[in-house]
Amino acid sequence: MSMLPQMFFGYFASAIVVLSLLVITRKNPVHSVMWMLLLFFHIASMYLFLNAEFIAAIQVIVYAGAILVLFLFVVLLLNLKEELQADRFIGTWPAGLLVSAAIFVSLAAALQKFVPGPKGNFTIDLIQRVTHTKVLGQVLYTEYLFPFEIASLVLLIAVIGAIVLAKKRMRSH
Amino acid sequence: MNELLTQSLTYIRSFGIIGNIFLILLQIVVVFVAALLHVAYATYWERKVIAHMQLRLGPREVGPYGLFQPFADGIKLFFKEDIIPATADKPIFYLAPVIFFVSALTSLAVLPFFDGFVVADINVGLLFLLAMSSLGAYGIVMSGWSSGSKYSFLGGLRSASQVISYEIAMGLSLVGVMIMSGSLNLSEIVRGQHAITTGVYAIPQVLGFFVFVVAMFAETNRLPFDLPEAESELVAGYFTEYSGFRFAMFFLGEYTGMLIMSSVGTICFLGGWTLPQFVTNALPFLLFVPGIVWFLMKVYCFMFFYYWVRATLPRYRYDQLMAIGWKVLIPIALVNIVFTGTMKIMGWF
After folding, report:
1. Distance in angstroms (rounded) separating the CA atoms of residues B59 and B258
2. How distant is the alpha carbon of residue B67 from its chain centre?
C-alpha cells in the first residue's frame, strides 16, 4: 500500500515529460494543442496529489479552459498546409538544446544542496479540515495581500494595453 | 425497507476497500442510467411541449402517446452509416464527440441529487463543474475544425467564443452564491440555503440568478443563443459532417448539458433537494416526500423553461449575443458580487 503514492507520482511525472515532448515534436499544431490539453490535466492531477484541490480546479479552468483555447484560436487560423511542410525546428536548435542542458545540469547540481525550509502551520491535516480554498484565501488576502495586488495591477495593465493596441489599429483604418 | 438498506450497506462496507469501490460503481451506474433515461425523455418531452405550443400533436405513432419514440430514434441513429469526410483529420474527428459527451457526463459525478447521494462529494464541486464545461468547448471546436468543412469550422469558432464569453458571466454569477454559503461544495451550498429565511438563494441573489439563467442558455447552445448551429446559415454548425452514432453523442451531450445546467441552477439557486423552512413549517406533511422528488421537480421546471423559450424567442444576431454577454451580463454579475460582499460584511446575509 505504501508504494501507491510513489507509483502515482512516478506515473504523473513521467507522463508530464512524455507529453511535453509530444507537444513540441508534433508536425500538426492542432495535435500539439490537444497533447497540451492532456498535459494540463496531468499537471492538475499532480496538484490534487498534493492536496491542492483549488489550484487543480483553477489549473483546468484557466489554463485548459481559457489560455489553451486562445492558443487554439491562433493555431486554427494558421495555414495548415504550409505549416505541415515546414520544418519543426529552426536551424539553431542545437544551441537551444545546449543551453537547456546546461540549465538542467546546474539545477541538478543545486538540488544536492537543497535544504527543506522550516515546517509552517499548514499541515495536510489542517488543510483537509479547513478546506484548501479557505486556507489559500486567508493567506492570500492577509499575509500576501500586497504581492497579490501587484500581480493584479500587472494584469490590469496588460488588459488596458491590449485595448489601446486594438483601438489604434481601428483608428488607422 | 430503510432498515434493510442500512443493513445491506453495512454488510457491503464490511468488505473494506472492495466494498466501497463496489458501492461507488453501483452509484455511478444508477446515476448514469437515470441520466440517460432523462436525456431520452427530455427529447420526447421537448417535442411534445413545442408541438402543443404550436398547436400540433407531436410524436404519437410509436407506442402509446408516442412514448417509445426516443428508443426508435436511438435505434435509428445507432444503425446509420458512419460517414467520415475525406478531408477530415481522423484522430481528432473521432475524439471530438467523445470529449464533448464525456465532459458532460463527468459533471454528473459531483451533483448531489438528494441528501448524501453524490458520487464524489468534493470540496471544489462548483469549480469542477466550470472546469468540465470548459473541457466540453474543446469537443465543439475540435469537431468543427477536424471535419474539414467551412460550415463546421464557422460553427465551431462561434461556439467556442460564445461558450468562453458566457462562462465568465456564469462563473461570476455563481460567486454571489459562493459568498453567501461560504463554500464551493454543492451539498454545503444546499444546506446553507436551507438555513436562511427565504430558503432559496434565488431571492437575495436575484441578479445572480438572472445572469445565471441567461448564461445557461448560451452555455448549452440553445435558442435564443444557438448561433453555433444556426441552420439557416451554417447547415447544422459544428456537427454538420457527423452522422450515426457520432452525431448521437453530440445530441446526447447537448441534452446532458441542459440537465446539468438545470441541476446546477436547482442546487445553487432553488435549494436543491430541500424546501424552504417556512413552507415545511406551514405544511409539515411535505417533509415525508423524499428529497429527490423536489430536486427533480425543480430540474423539470428549468427544462420546461428551456423548451418554452425555444418555442417563443427568435435567434439573436451574433454581435448582439456578444454585446449581451460582455456589456450587460458581466457588469450585472460584478455589481452583484460587490453588493453581496458588502451585505456579507455588514452581517445581513
Report:
1. 21
2. 23
Containing domain of residue A43, as a range?
1-88
A65-96 confidence digits (pLDDT tens): 888 888 888 887 776 677 677 776 677 888 98
Helix (H, G, I), strand (E, B) or coil at B56: coil
At A125 the three-state DSSP class reads: helix
Nearest residue on chain A to B185, alpha-carbon basis: A131
**Closest residue by Cα to residue A48 from A21, A19, A18, A8:** A8
CATH code, domain with A38: 1.20.120.1200
Chain B nearest-CA distance from A162, in A, is 16
pLDDT tens, residue by residue, B142-180: 888 888 788 888 888 888 788 888 888 998 999 989 888
ipTM of the complex: 0.80
Which of B32, B53, B79 is where one domain is finished? B79
- Grid cell, residue B110, equals 459531483
Domain count, chain B: 2
Segment 24-83 of chain A within 8 Å of chain B by CB = 28, 30-31, 34, 37, 53-54, 56-58, 60-61, 64-66, 69, 72-73, 76
- The helix or strand, by DSSP H or E, that contains position A132, with its residue range, turns out to be helix A132-142
Domain count within chain A: 1
Task: List the grid coordinates of B84.
Answer: 467520415
Q: Indicate whether this model's pTM tops 0.80.
A: yes
Where do we find the cell 445565471? Answer: B212
Are B91 and A28 a contacting pair at CB < 8 A?
no
Q: Which residues of A touch B157 (CB under 8 A)?
A: 73, 76
Q: Which of B349, B338, B345 is nearest to B175 (CA)?
A: B338
Domain of residue B195 covers 84-346
> Is B320 found in the same domain as B337?
yes
